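U., I forgot to send this yesterday:
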Amino acid sequence: HVLNNGPRSRHESRTEQWPRSTPEHAWKAPRPPGMLFPFPSFPMHSGPPSQFLIDMRKWMCLMLLLQSAVCILRFALADIWAGFIMMIIVGFGWYAWYQTMSMTFICYWGLIGLIHGVFDLVHLIDFEVKSRMPMFSKRAPFSYNVHAAARLLEPIVMLLGSLFAFYLYRYDQPDSVYERIASAETRSSESRPLSGSRSGGNYGLGGQGFSTFQGQGHKLGGQPSH
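Result:
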């Protein structure tokens, strides 16, 4: 046999120069960017509300009335910008209440109210730190005390509304404590008539006895005996 030690082909020389496709040199797909804040998605409103939301509807109405009163006070004190922003937030709440407790708009109402309430709280702290006057004073005119009350009440009602919205979101889940208690009460109320009918006699038979088989038996394929 004659050994061929001559020049190799161009394809063979390129194959030896490049490293083989090992796991170290394999191409890796870039990972998708993760969320900066992993907040859960807002629930979409579909179907009738739960019994828990129906029970909480009157309390949400009371919370919205308090926020609306503070919003009107803001406009009355010529604080147009703060009153306008608060009016939009309260509008989300009233729309959620009008749509039979829409959980989607309840979450919008709570989240925007939380942001606005935090900014109002920071603004209140900044104003009181830089002010030489106390928050309320008997010597000050009436308008001064009213403005101070409005600055104090706005972050309070906004943060309380956000806390109430979170309470509705938390306990409206299918596996919440409220739903488990309600389902347990429903099952116990459904089992009470059945247990009472068993103790009083057979259900639907007026207390009469029930016999499973009656009459004379016959063999399969045989003639009936007279």
